Write the structure tokens for this entry.
Amino acid sequence: MRQVFLRFYLTVVVCFLATSLLIGGIYKQLIERTNQRYLTDIFKSTVSIIEEELGDLPPSLWHDEASRLRGKLPVPVQIEKLGEYSLTEENQKSLEKGDIILLLDKGLYIHRIHKTDQMVVLGPIPFLTDLDNISWLDFLALFLMSAALGLPTWLWLRPFWRDLLQIIQQSRRVGQGDFAARVSLDESSALASLGVTFNGMAHDVEELTASRRAMIDAVSHDLRTPLARMRYRLEAIKSGADSAAQVAAIERDLGQIDELIEEWLTMSSLDSPQMQMNIQPQPMIPWLNKLANEFSLDGKPPELINQVEQNDPYMEIDSYYLGRAVSNILSNARRYGGDTIVMTLSWQDGQASLMIDDNGEGIPQEQRSRLLQPFTRMEGSRNKATGGFGLGLAIVAMIARGHGGSVAIDTSPQGGARIVLLWPTPLRSLS
């Protein structure tokens, strides 16, 4: 803190001294002009008095008369010959014309007595010589004022430095892998906004690290299982088992690995900052019917309800990616839900809504937000009957964000799960 304090304090002092000297110089110029006009007026009056007194006397008595008047006047006065002082050419001409000349370096006013070779000298006047001099009291005053600036500088810098040290300390903890580190600053702190930004960054890093760790665990599990089965089946073929059945099983395991890789690549492409959705107007009813037919059960596709006022609504979507999101939701409904799936399309105030309900067991409240994270599944779903990699709803959430919308999990009127896709879009009809 000492180094920071000295730098800040010296900067303040230098700025203060520069400002003081500038203002002092301007003020001095104004005072000098005022005082010189004032003294000039006084000297004119004094010269008039002296010349009136000397007017009736012979020049030989002027010195004695000046000595007598010296006690009656506020400043010293004397009579001297022209040429007594070294003058500039300009001042010499002015003096000969009868003007009053100021010799600032000597503190004197001089004036030629009309039609004589003598002049009246008024001074020296100490005030004139003191204008350009800086006394030790002036230096002492500047020093004391500069020293006094140290106290407010220290009082302001101390809490600033304390908060800065806290941010530095917590940053080191984050750098060492403790992503739960947070800073706690008062709202009045000058670094409060930086603290909020730091906490947000630490929270994001913590979530990202946890997500990556979960991804590694999930991928290792989902890859290890089919690989272990394939290794077992290869050994069975070597032992003389039915090769056709084992090869078919190996192909299923390879298909599972391909599916995992495809889901993973999809999520990676959606997470890329360069990813741009290809938003185009799309006739929603035929498009949704086509997707629903792909998930028919015993020839019965999911039911589609159109709550939009138009019979053939057009909405702006990326048909590939939003189709992927709807397919993931329908796939989960078929896998974990019951035998009834209902899709409801609606539009209000510039926002489209697609609700997909099933009559399964539903999703517990405490697990809903967690299931929107990659490689997260409900307890009991990690088995051979249901399968899945925990990426479906995470991909749905990323696609919804790509459309400027969101996804929510709720309870279906049928008792199962309700997945709601929301995204902004204009509504048009070509009928």
Remarks:
- The first helix runs from residue 2 to 55.
- The chain has a mean pLDDT of 77.
- Residues 82 and 203 are 91 Å apart (CA to CA).
- The chain has eleven helices and twelve strands.
